[in-house]
Amino acid sequence: MKLDTIDYLAKDASKQFVESLHQTGFSVLRNHPISQELVETIYSEWQEFFNSEEKHDFKFNVSTQDGFFPASVSETAKGNSVKDIKEYYHYYPWGQIPKSLEENIVKYYQLANSFASELLCWIEEHSPAEVAAHYSIALSEMIKDSDSTLLRILHYPPMTGNEESGAIRAAAHEDINLITVLPAANEPGLQVKDKDGTWLDVPSDFGNIIINIGDMLQETTNGYFPSTSHRVINPEGMDKTKARISLPLFLHPKPDVVLSERYTAHEYLQERLKELGVI
Ligand SMILES: O=C(O)CCC(=O)C(=O)O
Ligand SMILES: [Fe+2]
């Protein structure tokens, strides 16, 4: 398996993009319309937030899952017993957000959502007819005005040497949602699992944007678009002292969208959150 970066401005970009998603579950775009300056500003604003004590004033609401998740309650990936070495913030447009961080996050949320909608149109356009026949509504309609789409701001702190044995920044997992839009983080570490089980580095040049398939689109397409395992490995050498910030947007359909004969989006999400021990 090979992950090339695709030029968003190329004539056949949409075709290459969708082919890569079909083959690998991942696609990496350069020359895309998401402002790198905005992404960098967000990284530095949130680094400051995670370094401050203010974050504890925004502790997540258990029932609605918005807000700050400290490392002590951080996720344990499905099938894993050790917690990931990370803390994060869940932003929803209806959820809590520090005033000083609101403007850029709202701007980014809107930009990335409309970009995702264009990419879902690309996916639909290049889906084989027998796959597209199972879309209950247009893919871009599934996420339109959805309250469930989640922007996660992730902070992987510098390594201290006291981490739990076997813990990594993000253990191997698959995303639950339809697709994920992920600007390359400010530090490396993201890897994707090849069909033969080898871990490959995702080309994460600063400025690239990574799109991956989640379980919901895999369910809807009966596996035509695979939801591939990925992880974030720990830094080595000099990089150990560096924090890593990343900004995945998890595109979630509206709850009553029918994904397949077996599931609506709501039913699917509940089942997966239960498995994760989040609810
Ligand atoms: O931090 C990253 O680059 C990836 C994070 C991720 O895969 C996730 O939060 O689902
Ligand atoms: Fe992920």
Automatic annotation (TrEMBL):
Record-listed E.C. numbers = 1.13.12.19, 1.14.20.7
Q: What biological-process terms (Gene Ontology) are attached?
A: ethylene biosynthetic process
GO molecular function per UniProt: 2-oxoglutarate oxygenase/decarboxylase (ethylene-forming) activity; metal ion binding
Q: Which SUPFAM superfamilies match?
A: Clavaminate synthase-like
Q: Alphabetically list the UniProt keywords.
A: Ethylene biosynthesis, Iron, Metal-binding, Oxidoreductase
| Cofactor (UniProt) | Fe(2+)
Q: In which pathway does it act?
A: Alkene biosynthesis; ethylene biosynthesis via 2-oxoglutarate
Could you tell me what reaction this enzyme catalyses? 2-oxoglutarate + O2 + 2 H(+) = ethene + 3 CO2 + H2O; L-arginine + 2-oxoglutarate + O2 = guanidine + L-glutamate 5-semialdehyde + succinate + CO2
Q: Which PROSITE patterns match?
A: FE2OG_OXY
What are the residue boundaries of the Fe2OG dioxygenase domain, all occurrences included? 145-253
Q: Which Gene3D superfamilies match?
A: B-lactam Antibiotic, Isopenicillin N Synthase, Chain (2.60.120.330)
Q: Which Pfam families match?
A: 2OG-FeII_Oxy (PF03171), DIOX_N (PF14226)
Q: Which InterPro entries match?
A: DIOX_N (IPR026992), IPNS-like_FE2OG_OXY (IPR044861), IPNS-like_sf (IPR027443), Iron_ascorbate_oxido_reductase (IPR050231), Oxoglu/Fe-dep_dioxygenase_dom (IPR005123)
What's the domain of life for this entry? Bacteria
Keyword Metal-binding present in the record's keywords: the answer is yes
Check the record and name the PANTHER family matching this protein: 2-OXOGLUTARATE (2OG) AND FE(II)-DEPENDENT OXYGENASE SUPERFAMILY PROTEIN-RELATED (PTHR47990)
Similarity-based family: Belongs to the iron/ascorbate-dependent oxidoreductase family.
Its name, as the record gives it, is 2-oxoglutarate-dependent ethylene/succinate-forming enzyme
Organism, as annotated = Parashewanella spongiae
Please name the taxonomic classification of the source: Bacteria, Pseudomonadati, Pseudomonadota, Gammaproteobacteria, Alteromonadales
